[in-house]
Amino acid sequence: NFNDIFITIGLMLLVSGVLLFTGFLGFSSGGASSPAFAALATLLPAAGLAWLLSEYFCARRRLLLPSMALALMFCLFMGLSVAAFTGQDAATEVRSLFGVWDALGGVGLWGSGAIAVAAIAYFLRFRLPFALFILALALALMAYTGVTVFGDVGLVIGGVLSILIGAATLAIAISFDMADPKRASRKADYAFWLHLAAAPQIIFGLRSVISGFGAPPRSNEEALILLVALIGFDLVSLALNRRALIASSLLSYGLALQVLVSSTVDNPVQTTIITLLLLGGAIVLLGGGWSTARRAVLAFVPRTGLFGRLFPPEPA
């Protein structure tokens, strides 16, 4: 409710004030000659305050939006603190342009790793499902950074790594769903946030494989391939009773439809209008008839055993 929004705004203002205050103290007490010290003196107190406030607003009051904001602030401040500390040490070892690239990669790994550890700590203490979303993105960032700097950058640019990481995250989300087919426990919330972390990576990686690093389709053939692949993923999303994959694919649908429509309509304005009408109409129809669409898809899926747990039945 609006009280949650009101409290969240207050928390953001409060933590911002603490950041400015600790930053002023850090720089005035020798931080100008030691940027790492200034960063730690600025960020760590703010992270500590976010944790203490979480003890009240998350552990005691169970306010969702303030808890999400505090979790994000705590994890981000911890990650930036570690990145600042390791960045100063790495900078002293740089001897060439490639050394700068390697140093930045190391800082990125340490920073994203610290965010992941902070998210784990937050989840274990408060059991906030949103912390799993932060954890999933932090681990993905670690993988992208490590592969880009120390491995094969083609795996990232080509979209293969994005699909693999998204698929692994999706598998964990599905395991939570299978443990709670009726979506009656907190495991369903865990799954929701992991689906939300997995879906954009899968869709972006898919578009990168087809068109190159998330670019729009360059031909009717690429647009058709992308459209068929998206429809396949959306059928799975329907069967899983999760909308994250469909929501994440809207931009890709729009890009593919625009290419196909533009091949028959010369006017760019008309192309945009037709694309929006097709896409918007499809979303409205699917949203209004979600249950009917699920029953149609599940008619081809066994209702018992593994598939029965993987694809929960739609109530009559």
Produce the secondary structure layout.
Layout (H helix, E strand, L loop, with lengths): L1 H30 L3 H23 L6 H28 L5 H30 L2 H22 L2 H5 L2 H20 L6 H26 L8 H21 L3 H5 L1 H13 L5 H21 L1 H9 L6 H6 L6
Sum up the structure in keywords.
single chain, mainly alpha, 316 residues, 82% helix
Can you walk through the features of this model?
The model has no long low-confidence stretch (mean pLDDT 90). The protein has helices at residues 2-31, 35-57, 64-91, 97-126, 129-150, 153-157, 160-179, 186-211, 220-240, 244-248, 250-262, 268-288, 290-298, 305-310. The protein contains 14 helices and no strands. It is mainly alpha-helical and 316 residues long.
DSSP helix fraction:
over 70%
Q: How would you spell out the order of helices and strands?
A: HHHHHHHHHHHHHH
- The whole-number mean of residue pLDDT values reads 90
Strand content: under 5%
Continuous helix count: 14
Secondary structural class:
mainly alpha
Brief rundown of the structure:
The chain is mainly alpha-helical. 82% of the residues lie in helices and 0% in strands.
